[in-house]
């Protein structure tokens, strides 16, 4: 009963604001903008108290160029600064319909709002815009503090590593098993290299295809990684770390960073060499690099509640655990809805037996529809 009393005002507020602009506060005017058309967008974003790499223009460009999504970021400004921001992209698919997602293929993308009232303004503007565009629903990936009492559509673990320490102190915060794994990799002669080259990203993609097959999932299109290189890595906003045993790549990871904040986005490995602990070495090399370059936090991305192994891997690095909640508002029914985590299902068994070349084709066909 308490939840209903909190949910109803937010839904009623959204419905009323979408139906009429008469009640809008002229001092808090919300506009849908395309960040790719604003020259100093990233400078505006990093001045916000809460931001991540996913709020940036390079990430928006990567998504739009790869999948054809349309960016509509709902912004209220105070002078030249962003007062509130709800990044949103329109995903339009003949297979799965048209909807707004904040943001596609993003672990978490918190709304940048000073308080709940300012969030309600940008949220209701997005609702009104979505209704005019025929969206099925609107999904926010993060922002739990603005949705008090609203049941999340799905939840994940999130882990963030504080890097405001010396390398020695960061090493001391790791679990003993993680330190042993790093030493084992080094003792076995595994080496790690950091790169921003397209060749390194191609090697990572080879490992990524193997890893996705092992987990029963198709890999992302290679065009997506080409755009990651074009708009992120080549602009010094990310890096690839590869672990090699001799000349053989055995593990790799991809990181993005912006203004002192970094995220571990993708990890992959060759399971034939799992005992060499290449994945531990690539993570440690990335952490050392970020500590040396003054990055103060490394987010380790989202983890499904069902993936206990990945959760334990991330906790082993001394990361703080949080809960990432997604919220989905159905525009046709006018209410928030829940769903299950679709990371695991019957389809995993089918994908595991497919050849990698077939899985790549499936990824090319499906990802622009799934978002």
Helix content: 25-40%
- The N- and C-terminal alpha carbons lie at a distance of 34 Å
Pick out the low-confidence regions: 1-9, 16-23
Sheet of most strands: 12 strands, mixed
Radius of gyration: 21 Å
User: What do the pLDDT scores average to?
Assistant: 92
Strand tally, please?
A: 15
Just give the CATH class of the largest domain: Alpha Beta
The structural domain count equals 2
Strand content: 25-35%
CATH domain fold name of the largest domain: Aminopeptidase
Count, helices: 12
Order of helices and strands: HEHHEEEEEHEEHHEHHEEEHEHEEHH
Structural class: alpha+beta
Give the name of the CATH architecture of the largest domain: 3-Layer(aba) Sandwich
CATH superfamily of the largest domain: Gcn5-related N-acetyltransferase (GNAT)
Shape: globular
Structure description:
It is a single chain. 39% of the residues lie in helices and 27% in strands. The strands form two sheets. Strands 2, 5, 6, 7, 8, 9, 10, 11, 12, 13, 14 and 15 form a twelve-stranded mixed β-sheet that branches. The protein contains twelve helices and 15 strands. It is of the alpha+beta class. The chain is globular.
Question: What topology does this entry show?
Answer:
Layout: H1 2-19, E1 30-33, H2 41-46, H3 57-67, E2 70-71, E3 73-78, E4 81-86, E5 89-93, E6 97-102, H4 116-133, E7 137-141, E8 154-162, H5 167-172, H6 176-187, E9 190-195, H7 198-214, H8 222-231, E10 238-245, E11 248-258, E12 261-269, H9 278-292, E13 297-304, H10 308-315, E14 320-330, E15 335-337, H11 346-352, H12 356-370
Parallel strand pairs: 6-7, 12-13
Antiparallel strand pairs: 1-3, 2-5, 3-4, 5-6, 7-14, 8-13, 8-14, 9-10, 10-11, 11-12, 14-15
Helix pairs in contact: 1-4, 3-8, 6-9, 7-8
């Amino acid at each position: 009963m308490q939840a209903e009393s909190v949910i109803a005002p937010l839904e009623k507020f959204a419905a009323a604001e979408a139906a009429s602009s008469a009640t809008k506060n002229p001092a808090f005017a919300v506009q849908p903008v395309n960040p790719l058309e604003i020259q100093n967008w990233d400078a505006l974003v990093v001045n916000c108290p809460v931001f991540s790499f996913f709020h940036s223009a390079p990430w928006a460009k990567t998504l739009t160029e790869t999948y054809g999504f349309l960016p509509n970021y709902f912004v209220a400004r105070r002078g030249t600064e962003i007062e509130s921001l709800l990044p949103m992209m329109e995903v339009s698919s003949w297979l799965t319909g048209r909807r707004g997602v904040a943001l596609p293929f993003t672990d978490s993308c918190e709304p940048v709002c000073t308080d709940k009232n300012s969030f309600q303004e940008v949220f209701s503007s997005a609702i009104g815009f979505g209704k005019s565009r025929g969206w099925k629903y609107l999904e926010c990936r993060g922002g739990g503090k603005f949705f008090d009492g609203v049941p999340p559509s799905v939840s994940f673990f999130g882990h963030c590593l504080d890097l405001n320490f010396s390398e020695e102190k960061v090493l001391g915060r790791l679990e003993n098993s993680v330190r042993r794994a790093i030493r084992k990799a080094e003792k076995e002669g595994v080496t790690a290299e950091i790169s921003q080259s397209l060749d390194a990203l191609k090697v990572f993609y080879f490992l990524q295809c193997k890893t996705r097959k092992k987990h029963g999932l198709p890999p992302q299109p290679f065009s997506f990684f080409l755009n990651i290189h074009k708009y992120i890595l080549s602009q010094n906003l990310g890096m690839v770390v590869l672990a090699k045993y001799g000349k053989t790549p055995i593990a790799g990871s991809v990181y993005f960073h912006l203004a002192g904040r970094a995220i571990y986005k993708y990890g992959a490995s060759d399971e034939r060499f799992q005992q060499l602990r290449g994945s531990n070495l690539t993570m440690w090399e990335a952490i050392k690099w970020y500590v040396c370059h003054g990055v103060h936090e490394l987010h380790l991305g989202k983890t499904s509640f069902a993936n206990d192994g990945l959760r334990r891997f991330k906790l082993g690095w001394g990361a703080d655990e949080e809960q990432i909640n997604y919220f989905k508002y159905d525009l046709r029914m006018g209410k928030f809805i829940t769903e299950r985590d679709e990371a695991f299902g019957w389809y995993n068994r089918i994908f595991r037996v497919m050849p990698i070349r077939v899985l790549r084709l499936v990824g090319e066909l499906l990802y622009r529809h799934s978002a």
